[in-house]
Design a protein that fits this description.
Layout: H1 4-11, E1 25-35, E2 38-51, E3 57-61, H2 68-73, H3 75-80, H4 83-86, E4 88-93, H5 111-122, E5 134-139, H6 141-152, E6 158-164, E7 173-174, E8 177-180, E9 190-192, E10 199-205, E11 216-217, E12 224-225, H7 228-239, E13 246-249, E14 253-258, E15 263-268, H8 275-278, H9 280-296, H10 313-318, H11 320-333
Length: 338
Amino acid sequence: MASLGRLFMFATILQPSGATELPAGPSLFKVRQNWSQWPDGLNRKVHSLVSGSGGPVTIVLHGKGGQGLLTRDSYIGHELTGSNEGNNVMLFPDGYESSWNIWNDPSKADDVEFIERIVDHISNYSNVNISAGVTLAGYSHGCALIYNTFIASDRWEIQRAICGVTALSTEQYRNGVFYKRPTPESNYTSASFPPTNRTLWVVQGVLDDIVPWDGGLSKVIGLTYHSAKDSIQAWASYFGSATSPADISHGYGKEHVYLDGRVKLYEFSQSGHDLEVTGEAEWTAIRKELMDSATTGLMKVVPSNTPAIAMSHAAMRAAWGQTAVFMTMAVTLGLISK
């Protein structure tokens, strides 16, 4: 039998008609989380930027040493406001101590849980549309957090990601298996089998001397990485590809395409870890393309590990009263426990 608690968690995304809007333009909200460094809890900042009437959501994850506010107010935030014809919601969370908890980092927080709590929080706003899931966009250290989130989270809302200048480490993937941390401060020892219906695009520079294109030990980070091509092949194979990629030549290099575009590797032949600068125009265009794809598949997302829920947010809000009645009846009839 399903517990009342689990049904309530589902019901909370069905917003009542009086749901408020996330403020237009730039604003700030906080998500509370506790971990070993903050046992009594810390209100973690998430900087938002709502353009037009709102709409699909992108969570932008800064690199090591960065901040969500600086990323939002940089060219990145302004360039991406044009996605979905100028109607979108972009979120820029702050990593604790300007880092994400990946490997020997100042932060020991559960950042995958942080991403999930952000998704829970925004589902309460009427001008936020997550019916096609959310998009993650991360660069360098932020990309490593995307991999951790794709590996450890089974949330259906985590649907697509654009990842810059980082490959899978041998901690995250080895011997054909993805691994996650059983606790935020442990090593990557728990085999993980995440959903297979996601979209992942990776952008990487051949001249990268921090996360080597051909793989190997990063003397800067202290982790050993798979090559860019082996890393994307691992994702493509897990998502169901049994073929080699289709290769498309561009002025900046090549685009390696799997599964009709669900998995891609963009190879920048003359860029390194500074690809965000040397390939700025192309990098921005690629991010916009993926963000726009959130609106082309609305109402069609069928989570691989959860029941299909093909409802617009308007329909969800209309269903709120019916859900409450159902829950009351189910408890009365003994179909679910309190």
